Request: fold
Amino acid sequence: MGTVIGYVRVSTKDQNSESQEEALRRAGCARIYRDIASGALSERSGLEQCLEDLTEGDTLIVWKLDRLGRSLPHLVQTVTLLKEKGVGFRSMTEGVVDTTNPAGELIFSVFAALAQFERGLIRERTQAGLDAAREKGRVGGRPSLSKGDRKVQLAQEMTEKGMKMKDVCLALGISRSTYYRYLKLNESIWKSWHLSQRPGH
Reply:
C-alpha cells in the first residue's frame, strides 16, 4: 500500500494553513506539501514538488478542490496526471471526489466532461469575437504599418540625422522591436543604420 500525502495552499502569508494541515494529519497523511500563492498563479513550487514525489500506489488528499486547481480544466488536468501515475486523489470537503473508488471515478468523469465543455465554450466565444471583428474590418494581431505613418517617418528622419536608437525610442514612446519594424519599411535607411552598428563604424 502506498503513502498518503497531503497538499495545502493559502493565498497570503497572513492566512494560516494549520486547520487544513490538522485535518490532513487526521486523515493519515504522512507528509504535507505547502504553498503560499494565489490560486491564479501557475507557479507553485510546493505542488510541483508534491507531484514529482508521488509514486504509484500513493494517494493525494486536499482539504478542498480549489486548493489544488486554478480552474476546472486545470483541476482535471492535474487529477488526470495523478491517474496516469497510478496515484489516487481525494478531497476531504467534497467527499464525492475520490478516485480511489468507483463512485468517485464517475464523479471525476463528470468533472472532465464539464471541463471539456468549458473549453469548447471559450473556443466558440473567441471565434465569434474574431468573426465579428473581421466583419467590422478589424483583424487580430499587430496593426499594419506603412511608410506614410507619422511615427514611422519621424523614426526614419531621426535615424538619418544620427540620433541614437534609445533616444528615438524614448522620444516616440516605442520599443526597440517597433523601432526595427519602422526602419525596415525603408530598405535604404535600414541598411545604412544596420551598417553603422557594426564594429569600427
The first helix runs from residue 18 to 26. The mean pLDDT is 79.
